Amino acid sequence: MTRAGLIAAACLAITAVPSVAEPLASPIITDTTDLKASNALGAIAEDYVKVTLALGEKEAGYVDAYYGPAKWAEAAKIDPRDMRELGNALVELMQRLDDLPKSDDLLIEARKHFLSAQLEAAVTRHAMIQGESFSFAKEAKGLFGVTPELRPLEEFDPVLEEIENLAPGDGPLSERVAALEKGYIIPKDRLQIVFDTAIAECKARTAKYFDLPEGENFKLEFVTGKSWSGYNYYQGNYQSLIQVNTDLPIFIGRAVDLGCHEGYPGHHVYNMLLERNLTKGRGWQEFSVYPLYSPQSLIAEGSANYGIELAFSGQDRLDYERDILYPLAGLDPDTAAAYWALQIAKQALSGARMTITQRYLDGEITREQAIVLTQKYQLVSRERAEQMTDFAEQYRSYVINYGLGMEMVRDWIEAQGDAPVWRWKAMERLLSEPMLPGDLVGVSAEADHSEAASKIWREFVPDSGQADTVQGELLRSVEKLRDEAIRNGNGNWDEGFEILITYLEEKLLDEPLFEESDRSEIAKILGRLQKFDNPLMNDEPYDFLVARVVDYYDFHGSQPRISNPELKR
Predict the structure, then answer these.
(1) Residue 197, C-beta contacts closer than 8 angstroms, at least 6 positions apart
(2) What is the pLDDT of residue 122?
(3) Over the stretch 348-403, which tens digit does the pLDDT of each residue have?
(4) Where are the domains of the chain?
(5) What are the helix (H) ranges across 433-468?
(6) Which residues in 230-261 are b (16+ Cβ under 10 Å) and which e?
(7) What is the pTM of this model?
(8) CB atoms within 10 A of CB 335
(9) H-assigned helices in 81-172
(10) Quick check: 386 and 394 in contact, CB under 8 A?
(11) 290 φ, ψ to 5°?
């Protein structure tokens, strides 16, 4: 839906590495124009939170998480606003946002872009709460910012034919698969130990790359009577309630799935990093509230699903489940490979769920037909197909965020580099910045250098200390400066970082390889980095420097370097 269309819809209601555990200090803004824009943006953000909380009083579940001032939530309850007033407020906020001048500060522009997208989604949901209906595609675009490309169900038939070989026998394939999977159900009396163990491993693998907030934790509960299989209720202050639905049998593969998706590096980590880095670290109140029906959910669900394969890749996951979880569940480890092969094959059917949901919600098929098609193309039991249809009825186009979201997140992260350290860095950036679905589409020219940079990092940057090659030390210098600014707010700044900047200046500023415009940009960035009391906290300048380091290496090849005895960083 266009901006004009969204405003019109709302008007209908009137007549929609070194790091610190403590929060980062808010960046100091010295430019008068940017200071005014930041203050105005802060006021808009506060009003956005209050409107979101008020809208949450009109629809249970609309506010998925909130950890801002308690008095704002209380005010939304004791002084409710009617839908007409909320429609007015949404339009006013959009207009105030549009009236702000364009800023040279990329972070201010990113905040504006994020708030604009969240408000557009709020207008769409505002209209839906009042009874307005949209087609599946328009609803998805209005709420989550993307239009899904739906594949005809017939395109999934070849996948079913391949799975026939994994579940031989007579009768419908879905029944044969269900019969095979019955041998992989976790007994109810072993759910706790299996899930506790799996989540602990998910956490350990995430903590290897992320600096998790001190004191973070979660509570695990097993529940019934839900349309979903698992849910994370983020409580604020780095605490979560994770619920697992036991209405239907839970298969062994779901322990790692839900442990990563709901916990680490999924929803629990996503909310923690937003709270620490943006709400507390930068004072951006708009991130203290998470409306479920918003573009934020595509990032949340997509990253949570991709986080599973990031933490447990291929054979590594099979080995872990076979050697650790199968014995705990009392299952036969010798059969783990067969179950794993079936689950891998079924992943190719994920897109069918969106198509079935679209056809059902758009009135093209009945509920019974949706259930039958879900059995066939998701290879699940009748009971599970009914549960999935219940989910579609309750959450509607939200289903796009799982499959499509994961594909978009995977494509974006893996474009940043093939080494695990680069992919985890990209994941951390995704979970810590005001990212939107549109930001995942179309990798920038600088990202094209990421694979080469990853290679330099692997081959020439040591685990600790200085590099003994020029290209290794150049890349190490950029990443040291990036990490100190973004993750530590320059809290550990000392002479060592000045030496790193000087080294970059010596090697890059007089390099004839670069055009004058590139040298000018390098000088601008390095000059800005020297203002350590106002840390440069967006990634783009560092990515530019990384790309120039790659260009330098491509031109000069590997060059030896003698360590600087004065450098302790």
Answers:
(1) 255, 324, 325, 328
(2) 97
(3) 999 999 999 999 999 999 999 999 999 999 999 999 999 999 999 999 999 999 99
(4) 3-132, 153-408, 444-556
(5) 450-460
(6) bbbbbbbebbbebbbbbeebbbbbbbbbbbbb
(7) 0.76
(8) 14
(9) 83-99, 106-129, 136-144, 157-164
(10) no
(11) -125, 100
